[in-house]
Design brief:
single chain, mainly beta, Methylamine Dehydrogenase, Chain H, Immunoglobulin-like, 2 domains, four-stranded antiparallel β-sheet, 0% helix
Length: 509
């Protein structure tokens, strides 16, 4: 069934305090899930999802035939909000795997990841620029002979160029190497690079541009940051190393986003938490994410939501011993929602099947969420039926195994309660959805002043419907949609004295 704005009422019961903080949220309901395995590919992984200006999903990942590794396959995809594939991007290099993507100001896109220079060659980091129609504008490969270079995070800078983080000088297994920051112009030509860290397992995991600084979320240590762990490293756009955080976390990082206060919020991988710093990287707070004791857990992504909170994705699993004594673990997609102070609002697992992960998640403009990831097929490898992987970036070199990329769409949250459960106020709105005029009915215990206000989901005041004195009992006012207000979910707030009531409506123009 196709999901249309005109046929499905999106109910988002979000109560706004005076600080517009969300609370009391029920977990969102899953609307649908879809799996993808594109032609010619027995293995498909979706790693990162970004929302385009046209409200489509730009996904970086990989789909190829692991049995016949060659230059045929896909590394990026455009899918609409109904889950329909619009286009996919062909490999321009050997065995490409897209790890992270970014939407550029003109609507074009770029991804980074890794590829091979030839079947006997080493891993190489690549950047690919993609036009809005899915055609490849250019691909640049950055490689050192006999080592392994990989890109994990990419961001666009004000001059149109890119900053990419990842790993360089890797030897042996893919995990070895040094953190690498690569700065290019708008055409992918290198302006400068920096190699950071002295440990072989150093790498840059994610990258953002904020306060006219490049901030890289990195793992490792060097002469000035001698404690091994997670650091925020800051650079000027011209390549000057500015500082690194000394509040070291002895854990592997995962993902970072810019917070509404100008600082940074990030999450880590194993038994993840939410961490928040100011704009200089000084730690302000951290919060645990609830997990079931003795379970396995891993974090992959954290994004800011429209109300300045956060949405987190990863996997939540458990393990058990089989009758033969072998240890088997099971993984399920995991989402958690937080307010701007890191207070947990809801926390859910999504059961598609055994062994899958949510690698990335975005909040949608009308509310709700889209999560992407991979469902992993158990296959025999070297005679061991329990060998499998959920991350081709970690182990994909010529090994036969199957997987299926997937998307899961969730409705907006419901179940918001009033700040004062004993409030005698009530509010009714009709119709919903509405297209031009909305009727708002409310009651007053006694004659007095009442206000009816309209907010969008980010807490911005859209319209003041009324602010005047009304008699005791029920009254009705009409709200006419102001010019320039687009379709979507809106909050109607009714205030009388120290009490308030909130209802949600859907505007369809």
């Amino acid at each position: 069934m196709r999901y249309r704005h005109s046929s499905l009422i999106l109910l988002v019961m979000i109560t706004l305090l005076f600080t517009f903080q969300s609370f009391g949220l029920d977990p969102p309901v899953k609307l649908w899930e879809k799996q993808y395995s594109f032609p010619g590919g027995s293995g498909c992984f979706f790693y990162d999802v970004e929302l385009t200006p046209e409200n489509n999903l730009f996904i970086s990942g990989v789909s190829r035939d692991f049995q016949n590794p060659d230059s045929t396959g896909y590394c990026a995809f455009l899918i609409d909000l109904d889950g329909n594939n619009i286009w996919q991007v062909d490999f321009t290099c050997l065995l490409m795997s897209g790890a992270d993507g970014v939407i550029l100001p003109d609507g074009s896109m770029a991804i980074t990841g890794y590829c091979f220079t030839d079947m006997e060659g080493s891993h190489a980091l690549f950047i690919m620029k993609i036009a809005q129609d899915g055609s490849t504008e250019w691909t640049k490969v950055y490689d050192y002979p006999d080592t392994k270079e990989e890109g994990y995070g990419i961001t666009c800078l004000p001059d149109g160029g890119f900053a990419v983080c990842g790993k360089v000088n890797g030897t042996g297994t893919i995990g070895f190497g040094q953190a690498w920051l690569l700065r290019t112009d708008a055409f992918g030509d290198t302006l400068w690079t920096d190699t950071w860290g002295t440990a072989h397992t150093n790498r840059g995991y994610d990258i953002v541009f904020n306060n006219n600084e490049i901030c890289m979320l990195a793992l490792g240590e060097d002469d000035t940051l001698a404690t091994y762990g997670t650091h925020l490293l800051f650079y000027s756009p011209d390549g000057e190393y500015l500082r690194g955080t000394t509040d070291t976390l002895n854990t592997e990082p995962a993902s970072i986003c810019i917070a509404s206060d100008g600082g940074y919020t990030f999450t880590n991988t194993a038994f993840p938490r939410v961490w928040h710093t100011d704009q200089y990287g000084n730690m302000l707070w951290w919060k645990d994410i609830y997990v079931t004791p003795n379970d396995w857990h891993k974090g992959y992504c954290i994004r800011r939501t429209m109300d300045s909170g956060y949405i987190f994705s990863g996997w939540d699993g458990f393990y058990e011993y089989e009758p033969d004594g072998n240890l088997t673990d099971y993984e399920e997609g995991w989402l958690a929602r937080f307010d701007s102070e890191g207070n947990e609002l809801w926390n859910i697992n999504n059961t598609i099947s055994v062994n899958h992960a949510f690698y990335s998640v975005v909040q949608l403009p009308e509310g709700g969420y889209m999560a992407c990831g991979a469902y992993n097929v158990w296959e025999s490898m070297n005679g061991n039926d329990n060998q499998w992987t959920h991350s081709p970036l970690e182990d994909m070199d010529g090994v036969s195994r199957g997987s299926t990329g997937f998307l899961v769409r969730y409705a907006p949250e419901t179940g918001i309660t009033s700040p004062d459960s004993d409030s005698s106020l009530s509010i009714e709105v009709s119709p919903s959805p509405f297209s031009s005029v909305l009727c708002v009915s409310f009651n007053l215990p006694e004659s007095g002043e009442a206000t009816v206000l309209v907010y969008d989901l980010s807490g911005r005041l859209v319209d003041t419907v009324t602010d005047e004195v009304f008699p005791a009992g029920e009254s009705t006012v009409q709200c006419t949609v102001p010019e320039g207000v687009s379709s979507g979910c809106y909050l109607i707030r009714y205030n009388a004295g120290s009490e308030s009531a909130v209802e949600t409506v859907v505007l369809l123009k």
